Amino acid sequence: MSKLHAPFRFDYVGSFLRPENLLQARTQFEKGGISASDLKKNEDDAITDLVAKQKKAGFHVITDGEFRRHSWHLDFMWGLENVKRIELSHGYYFHGLETYHTSVEIEGKIGGHNHPFVEHYKFVKQFEDENTVAKQTLPAPAQTLSEFLRADNIAHTKEIYPNYDDLINDLGKAYQTVIKELYDAGCRNIQFDDCTWGMIVDKDYWEKKVGKSITVEAQANAYLKVNNLAIEGKPDDLAITTHVCRGNYQSTYAATGPYDRVAPYLFAKENVDAFYLEYDDARSGGFEPLKYVTPGKKVVLGLITSKRPDLEDKATVIARIKEASKYVPLENLCLSPQCGFSSNAIGNKLTEEDQWKKLALVKEIAKEVWGEN
What SS3 state is found at 62? Predict the structure, then answer.
């Protein structure tokens, strides 16, 4: 078993652009043209090839690129006990774009036993070596809670869970179950992906989603409660980190705003080991909110964008790292792209070659700043 622990000086969030043959296979499967086993064979082959490329690029973390998922979050939610897939009349509204219409519906008390992502993890685990560790990405418990409370879903959710605290407790415990099963399978590196904080920071987006009656404080405390409950009791040798962004769908975004509104909750009180933070443009604001990060915790600065193919200026990125070190010591900082390259089956608007050039730049800058391999 690999003894490495996330995060790393040069790192990435987790999702990668799907190869065209895999996209075609998934389309064939959805149309009934190939079997589930045929699709899995295509996924296995694509993931095997991806891991080889990740290792060749010199990164210490390996993932399946989320190649078995249609979306970064919903596939996980559908794998929970008594949660099913539904179709809504509309999606989420990003900047100039509407997402797909799929969502979730609770059919009974939520559980986390025998989640399919455990088997997904085991496939990547086999490729670990002394230089690499397999990372399993999951939507954060707060993200799942947010989907259950989406305007189109909330009435049905309240039928099953009239008491809000019961919903939070069952969801947190379901995640504990998944985390334990991942740990028992050898997983030592779990990343929560969490857009909920990135939505709270945008006052206009937030009020359109939940109305004006719910305060930032109330929602932030609910998100903290469910996320920390999921983490409660985790083994000391299991790294649980979180990634925060403001939406990543076909190179566009959902929300905008600095971390100021959420920093006293997220950075000071969430019991994760490290934060992967979107910082690739002005939408994320400045570094001052990092002063709330609990001393000793690591911050992975997402200064390289995964949304556009053009490469960042190295000197500018290094200057921003130094600026961030005013609030978090340089030895506790790392570097990555601000998000994954393909949060959904249809990825961002860049090529696979662009993707690997971005990661090469991340590694090059990190080695120059920290002098580490």
Answer: strand
- Total domains present in the chain: 1
> What is the CATH number for 104?
3.20.20.210
Distance, CA of 228 to CA of 294 (rounded, Å): 15
Alpha helices in the chain (DSSP H): 20-30, 36-56, 74-78, 116-125, 141-148, 154-160, 164-184, 196-200, 203-210, 216-231, 263-269, 314-324, 352-370
User: What's the rounded Cα separation, in Å, for the pair 233 and 240?
Assistant: 12
How does pLDDT run across 155-189, given as a tens digit for each residue?
999 999 999 999 999 999 999 999 999 999 999 99
Backbone torsion region of residue 212, taken as left when φ is above 0, otherwise alpha when ψ lies between -120 and 50, otherwise beta: alpha
Query: 309: helix, coil or strand?
Result: coil
Distance in angstroms (rounded) separating the CA atoms of residues 263 and 283? 15
Q: What are phi and psi of 325, to 5 degrees?
A: -70, -5
Q: Is residue 5 part of a domain?
A: no
Instruction: Kindly tell me if the per-residue pLDDT of 254 is higher than 90.
Output: no
- 274 touches 316 (CB < 8 A): no
pLDDT tier at 92 (50, 70, 90 boundaries)?
Answer: low
- Yes or no: say if 71 and 41 are a contact pair by the CB < 8 Å rule: no
pLDDT in tens, 344-355: 888 899 999 999
Phi and psi at 241, nearest 5°, equal -115, 175
Q: For the purposes of burial, counting CB atoms within 10 Å of the CB of 79, is it exposed (0-12), middle (13-18) or buried (19 or more)?
A: middle
As a dihedral over the C-alpha atoms of residue 146, residue 150, residue 153, residue 154, rounded to 10 degrees, the angle is 80
Give domain status of residue 263, yes or no.
yes
pLDDT band with cut points at 50, 70 and 90 for residue 209: low
Determine, yes or no, domain membership for 8.
no
Following DSSP, what letter does each residue of 276-295 receive, concatenated? Answer: EEE-SSGGG--SGGGGGSPT
Give residue 96's domain range: 20-366
Distance from C-alpha of 364 to C-alpha of 373, rounded to nearest angstrom: 10
207 inside domain: yes
Q: What are phi and psi of 228, to 5 degrees?
A: -70, -30
Q: Return the number of other C-beta atoms located less than 10 Å from residue 269's C-beta.
A: 15
